[in-house]
Amino acid sequence: MPILKQATREVILPVSKAKVILTELNYGIFVEARRMSKEDQDSPLFMASLIIKDWDLTDEAGVKIPITIENLKKIKDIEDGDFLMSEVADQINKEMDQKKTSKSEL
């Protein structure tokens, strides 16, 4: 019987040194995306909020903050935000290219 595995990749933000875990695209992400408006679906922050599986970003009291679009907007350092969005875009593009390649080989 096949086992469902969720591949992940860890990135470290350059300024804050926060650890972020990105997940591969999966059916659940597409289901969540379909529930949102077209405008939200086109938002890079929306896709980032679905692809980020975990992070160690905390509030002033040391409590881990949830992964949401609003909290992504609150990332303090522009370099960290740009780096994270670039990593998310790379993750999406890499997987979409792999899917196109595998379909064309059929």
Walk me through what this model shows.
The chain is 50% helix and 13% strand. The protein has 106 residues and is α+β, with helices and mostly antiparallel strands. The chain has a single domain, classed as rbstp2171 (2-Layer Sandwich). Strands 1-2-3 form a 3-stranded antiparallel β-sheet. A hairpin with a 6-residue loop joins β1 and β2.
In brief:
The chain is α+β, with helices and mostly antiparallel strands. Helix content is 50%, strand content 13%. α3 crosses α5.
Discrete helix count = 5
Specify the structural class: alpha+beta
Low-confidence segments, ≥5 residues, pLDDT <50? none
Count of all domains: 1
User: Could you name the CATH topology?
Assistant: rbstp2171
Query: Could you describe the largest sheet, including whether it forms a barrel?
Result: 3 strands, antiparallel
- The first-level CATH class is given as Alpha Beta
- Quote the average pLDDT: 84
Tertiary shape: globular
Amino-to-carboxy terminus distance: 24 Å
Strand content: 5-15%
CATH A-level architecture: 2-Layer Sandwich
The count of β-strands is: 3
Helix content: 40-55%
Major sheet strand order? 1-2-3
Radius of gyration: 15 Å
The ordered string of helix (H) and strand (E) elements is EEHHHEHH
